[in-house]
Design a protein that fits this description.
The chain has 15 helices and 10 strands. It has 321 residues and is α/β, with parallel strands linked by helices. The chain has a 6-stranded mixed β-sheet, sandwiched between helices. A 4-stranded parallel β-sheet has the order 5-4-3-6, with helices on both faces. Helix 3 runs parallel beside helix 5 and helix 10 packs parallel to helix 12. The chain starts with 5 loop residues before the first helix and ends with a helix.
């Protein structure tokens, strides 16, 4: 999609989402600022509806369906946050939703998705991949797929998080964003180009699933199975074609964070900032704390992408650190 079309899309998404999603707060930590010699601003999407930024893109995409599509309903695949977001958006729109979720998805996310009234289908029971199940069920039932990241309406919706952040804090020097399929960082990078064009945008993936880093470095879309990681919200095997093109044009660098770094970052946010965040949410903070991204003297924006985490699992991770 031409870059010239994105500003209008982002502004239209912000208008469409006004009053339908939270304008989440920006948090700071004087302790962290002293540690890093920087000014760090956290966009708290862990306090967003459904507990994650995903409600932005899902609500925007569902809201743009035509009447015939709305009548038939929607379908999506996700291990958690996108599932909840589509289920919630569909419930509010009064339309059916089918969500394809693996049985191994976090319990808290499975329960929340069911709580929004969605029909949950497990691909293991069907003997096919999540993607194949979505294609087949969409065809059989006439459902409209709502992709988790590779869709312009989803990207524009996610980008409203960065629009709000930069409106609240002004221009920054550095923006760090978690990366799974690339929808959030694509939207945030486009919004940053609008409101803080001099800033460097850096994407952060789990160390066990560095397909996006490989794609960024090679200049070609790389597919790579994700290994075991507690960052369940970023276990995607590849960036999307749309999101990869946006990342290539507007993201300055990509890096990774290992699970021990994510646990340390989670612990800091829980203990010092009193915010409940999930492991994926602290991907942007982890390399700052580890000293692999130098923020000295800079104004830094970090997106905390979500807070949907099993407290018992979080307690085990932090106790083991």
């Amino acid at each position: 999609m031409p870059d010239a079309q994105w500003p209008a899309r982002l502004l239209a998404a912000r208008e469409a989402l006004a009053g339908r999603v939270h304008r989440t707060p920006v948090a700071t930590s004087r302790t962290l600022d002293r540690m890093l010699g920087a000014h760090v601003f956290f966009k708290c999407e862990n306090l967003q509806r459904v507990g994650a930024f995903k409600i932005r893109g899902a609500t925007h995409a569902v809201g743009r369906l035509d009447p015939a599509e709305r009548a038939r309903g929607v379908i999506a695949y996700s291990s958690g946050n996108h599932a909840q977001a589509v289920a919630c958006a569909a419930q509010e729109a009064g339309i059916p939703a089918v969500i394809v979720m693996p049985r191994g998805a976090p319990r808290v996310k499975l329960e929340a998705t069911a709580g929004y009234g969605a029909e949950i289908v497990h691909p293991e029971d069907l003997g096919e991949s999540r993607e194949a199940a979505v294609v087949r069920l969409a065809g059989e039932r006439g459902l409209t797929p709502i992709p988790p990241f590779d869709h312009p309406d989803v990207v524009a919706g996610q980008g409203t998080a960065a629009l709000e952040l930069l409106e609240d804090v002004g221009p920054v020097d550095l923006v760090l964003v978690p990366v799974g399929g690339g929808g959030l960082i694509s939207g945030c990078a486009l919004a940053t180009r609008m409101l803080s064009p001099g800033a460097r945008v850096i994407g952060v993936e789990p160390e066990a699933g560095a397909d996006g880093v490989a794609s960024f470095r090679s200049g070609a879309l790389v597919t790579r199975a994700c290994g075991e990681t507690i960052a369940d919200g970023a276990r995607t095997p590849a960036l999307g074609r749309l999101t990869f093109e946006v990342i290539r044009r507007h993201v300055a660098d990509m890096t990774t964070a290992g699970d021990p770094e994510l646990i340390a970052a989670m612990r800091f946010v829980w203990e010092r900032m009193k915010l409940v965040v999930e492991p994926t949410a602290v991907l942007g903070l982890a390399p700052l704390l580890a000293g692999r991204v130098d923020a000295r003297g800079l104004r830094v924006a970090v997106v905390l992408s979500g807070g949907n985490v099993d407290p018992a699992a979080a307690a085990r991770w932090m106790a083991s650190a």
